[in-house]
Design brief:
Layout: E1 3-6, E2 28-36, E3 39-45, E4 48-55, E5 73-75, E6 78-80, E7 98-104, E8 116-123, E9 127-132, E10 142-147, E11 155-164, E12 167-171, E13 184-188, E14 199-203, E15 210-216, E16 219-224, E17 227-231, E18 238-244, E19 251-254, E20 267-275, E21 284-286, E22 289-293
Antiparallel strand pairs: 1-9, 2-5, 2-11, 3-4, 3-10, 4-7, 5-6, 8-11, 9-10, 12-22, 13-14, 14-19, 15-18, 15-20, 16-17, 20-21, 20-22
Length: 296
């Protein structure tokens, strides 16, 4: 997954929100400032930060071979001077993915869970990119790419990476149904288990047709009916209430957390399966899916 923000002027402030949930008082923030020339990636895992550098001079090292002082990377205000291979010189120019030393500078450590970060670029002139989102598959690492390579010289780049305590993120792919569109699912309202206004909403379904909301503990992408099953059947599929679509093809199911087995920091996967005789084939189809992590 890669989200890119092209620069629009030094000091510009843009916010990239990967997901739909707002930040709360529980949001953890990591603040990074670095002197960037070329393209480098900063990996954040637990307490550790580490650079991987690809082209031009490594972060903070431009013209170090001609006597220019090295610039630190600042992580939450702490100056860090990473060790590099220094091949062929201290610039590590065009080293093709060489690694710096790592340092334990994130306190408290980023969580070893499947979470969704929010990347907030604060100072840049090229691109700031969320290259990897933490998951069990990548060791729960977040990777931020900083690209100044199209521009001469180097400049300061600054960003924050925020750990959202709860989120709702659409994933998977739905196929067109007889409405003429591909149905989508979204989560609306408060994602706190103490809230009372959370619901699942299916849009662009056939009008006046029955369907079933269901959920499970893991993702999938398997052909089913005229669409795709986006929830792992081996993790257990849990049927929820049957809901008919209205004349606009919209269906909504309020979530009663008191009747559901959800606990704080749980991540669950939701989808809607609906009848669609006019769509041919098996006569039914599915929305895409939404991955939700719930707050307390």
């Amino acid at each position: 997954m890669k989200f890119s923000i092209p620069g629009s002027g030094l000091g510009a402030l843009l916010v990239l929100l990967a997901g739909t949930a707002p930040a709360s008082s529980q949001t953890q923030v990591v603040h990074v400032r670095a002197w960037i020339d070329g393209y480098s990636e900063l990996t954040l895992t637990g307490a550790n930060v580490q650079w991987r550098h690809f082209d031009f001079a490594a972060p903070g090292r431009l013209n170090c071979n001609t006597g220019t002082p090295e610039e630190p990377t600042l992580v939450n205000g702490v100056a860090w001077y990473p060790t590099w291979p220094d091949v062929p010189t201290c610039e590590n120019r065009f080293c093709g993915g060489c690694l710096s030393s790592a340092a334990a500078l994130i306190s408290p450590p980023l969580p070893p869970v499947d979470y969704l970060p929010r990347l907030v670029p604060l100072l840049y002139r090229g691109e700031v990119t969320l290259v990897e989102v933490p998951s069990a598959a990548n060791g729960f690492r977040a990777v931020v790419g900083l690209d100044d390579s199209p521009i001469g010289g180097a400049d300061w780049y600054e960003f924050t990476l925020e750990v959202l305590p709860c989120f709702g993120l659409e994933y998977c792919t739905s196929t067109p149904n007889s409405s003429g569109a591909a149905a989508i699912l979204q989560v609306a309202g408060d994602l706190s288990l103490s809230g009372t206004s959370t619901s699942l909403q299916a849009l662009d379904c056939p009008a006046i047709r029955p369907g079933i909301f269901f959920y499970g503990a893991g993702p999938a992408n398997i052909p089913l009916a005229n669409g795709r099953l986006c929830i792992d059947p081996f993790s257990g599929l849990h049927r929820m209430q049957a809901v008919w679509t209205d004349p606009t093809g919209f269906a909504e199911l309020p979530l009663d957390f008191a009747a559901l087995p959800f606990t704080p920091d749980d991540t669950w996967y939701f989808q809607y399966w609906f009848r669609d005789p006019a769509g041919g084939g098996t006569g039914s189809n599915l929305t895409d899916a939404v991955r939700v992590r719930f707050c307390p």
